[in-house]
Amino acid sequence: MGQKFCGANPTSRAWSLSRESQQLVHRISRTAISVSAFTIKAMKSLLPARVFVRTPAVPSSRTPFICSSCRLSGRRFAATQAGPSPPKPPAAGYSLLSSRRLISIAGVDAPKFLQGLITASVYNKGTELRERGFYTGLLTAQGRVLHDLWIYPNPNHYGLADAHKSGLLPGQAFLIEVADSQVDTLMKLIRRYKLRSAVTHHKLELDECSVWTYWDESYHGTEYPDKLPRHGSEAYVAADSRAPDLGYRVITPASNSLTVDAERLPEDVYQVRRYLRGVAEGPDEITPDKTLPLDANMDLMGGIDFRKGCYVGQELTIRTKHRGVVRKRILPCMVYGEDEPAPQDLEYRPAPGAASGALDVPGGTEIIRAGPQRSRRTGNWIHGVGNIGLAMCRLQSMTDVELPGENTETPFDPSQEFVFKSSPSEEGAEGGKKLKVKAFVPQWMRTRLAQSNTSHSRQTDE
């Protein structure tokens, strides 16, 4: 008979309060959504109207492919390159190497510091410093090339402040030549390795110092040509002994242009001279952190001293020299069309239409045997100009060079031709005619390879 009050039940009261809270939250949410919708609508009204235009589909002339690799294999290269080729190098000439930069490094510990970094030695015998500039490299800890360099004595103290010049003894100042695109990277590397060494380093600007190359193929003397030095003590000359007749490197203040009795030519003419001799230079041709120094022929070009003490990356380099076999090397190559006979001699042809365009072939393009059968890679293209270029080639596949202690199941066939992988053997692909490529081994390289192999065999027998 007692009356029941809803408010007297605690559970009922809690449920009632909870329900009121839910209703309040619901009303607030609806209000917020309405305000947001109104705000978005107002903002849209301020924007310009969007006009949609349907572009009619253009029928593609490409043959449909299942994957991108199939499309790549269907691509062909043009038979001639778009731009003009550099002229054929004359017997004598000189060029400004604007692609190269200089770093000055000096101090009491400068010789010792460089000795622990580079692949060549800064000393002739014992503690006697080398008086001439020399070619060398700087490797990673894993033995891969980071920089290909030139080291020069710096008796004129180029790039040094007066405060740093005082107190320097002969042989405590050097110039490091490196690719222009790598100069800042090398500066950071020197700073990282310097630690507490008593050395200072400075990047020389283009208006401070210049690097030149000069050549005269008619001169075969052991000393420098008489007509080369024209600036007395201001110019520094070093023989470029990487390959025969490559010429000389000359360092001058930028204010003094090199003056010799020869024609001044653009730098790409020097590039042609290097390619004809199989000499790679700079990061575009010696891929940093990937190329081994022996694959880049640094051993054949005098850039490695296998008798010196420790330096960065020495372990793999020494082991490859004494226990391993170098199966691939950078070689000069000649590119020609599919309708042309295979060339017998390496020859640069700058005339448009006379030969195929090596410049059009992308770096890294694979080289394979010509023919309908599937072929494994025999090389990789690096860079070219005109109808010549450089490629990383497997010696046993693309040349008649015999490797010590190596037997191949497929001997070298002189009649075998090679093509770029992106040039298919089948007809009907779009683009120009496919290109063929032939590798050559210069005589200087054969001679030094034979000397290296003889030394390798002698050390193996011992």
From TrEMBL:
Record's subcellular location: Mitochondrion matrix
The CAF17 C-terminal domain, residue ranges: 327-446
Keywords: Mitochondrion, Transit peptide
SUPFAM superfamilies xrefs: Folate-binding domain (SSF103025)
Record region (Disordered): 407-434
Gene Ontology cellular component annotations, sorted alphabetically: mitochondrial matrix
Any single Pfam family the record assigns to this protein: Beta-barrel_CAF17_C
Coiled coil: none
Xref: InterPro entries: CAF17_C, TrmE/GcvT-like, YgfZ/GCV_T_CS, YgfZ/GcvT
GO BP, sorted A to Z: iron-sulfur cluster assembly
Similarity comment text for this entry: Belongs to the GcvT family. CAF17/IBA57 subfamily.
Protein name: Iron-sulfur cluster assembly factor IBA57 homolog, mitochondrial
Species annotation: Neoarthrinium moseri
